[in-house]
Input
Amino acid sequence: MSKRPIIIDTDPGIDDAVALAIALFSDKLDVKLITTVAGNVSLDKVTYNTLRLLKFYGKEIPVAKGADSPLILPLKDASNVHGKSGMEGFDFEEPDEHLLLKENAVEAMHRIIMESDEPITLVPIAPLTNIALLLKVYPEVKKNIREIVLMGGSAGRGNKGVMSEFNIATDPEAAHIVFECGLPIVMAGLDVGWKALVLQEDSVKLPSLGEVGRMAYCLFQKYRGGSMKTGLKMYDSCAIAYLLRPEMYDIAETYVGVELSGDMTAGCTLVDLKGYLGRPNNAKVCMDIDGKMFREWFLESIAECI
Ligand code: RIB
Ligand code: CA
Output
């Protein structure tokens, strides 16, 4: 079976780091391009982290830098979760810059999507600034995009605001553009992210699974997305898990709206399961996940890396 062509938009980020590894070492996915966007930490830092990861993974994937801030809001990063560098805890080698394209993320995504003889799946695991800019500047790309499978949003409570999730709340205007674009969207939000855990008994196995496992173990000592005791949240791996093991999920097809103007609720996703808003469905929302199946899949996937 041919590999599914994807473009990953990312802001590494400790959970991004392992999600990228799983995608890059999967024999079912063909990562055509990695684009970077300001989110967990600054654009320069997430780009540097992406290049360091690719060097460590030994993967020659082109990288293109994207937006250095959200469309409207100022960037409020998540260095409190991922550390000042965005990837504290492991001593990576200096990256090779040759993978960094001269094109920016929007131009590179446009070129690769339009050149592809098979529709591309976009996999944003970061704020949606680049994806929104792509759709606005080059709307013609829609005809060759299969699906947008994103990590973000929440049908319930938030992790950045009372009801808002970090990727959406960082750039709500971009998220609004994406959710209203008419393309098939899969939303892997906090409803599954909070159950996609690496427990203590899983973490201790990581160093024996190989180089990526050892790296993950070191990064997880510094990761504040949960705790070793209650479990570390593998948010971004949820988007990759949908591509590789959709059967792990309970899915609801519904309308998702992004609140833009609420002074207490801006950035939250309204997952309208009961159709109160009377708007057509625009997303498949991952509402639940088999936590045990995820943990087994996560460890198996890390073991398949180097
Ligand atoms: O809310 C979780 C998301 O925010 C993940 O993508 C994580 O990397 C952070 O960017
Ligand atoms: Ca991320």
Remarks:
- The mean pLDDT is 96.
- Residues 63 and 279 are 37 Å apart (CA to CA).
- The first helix runs from residue 14 to 25.
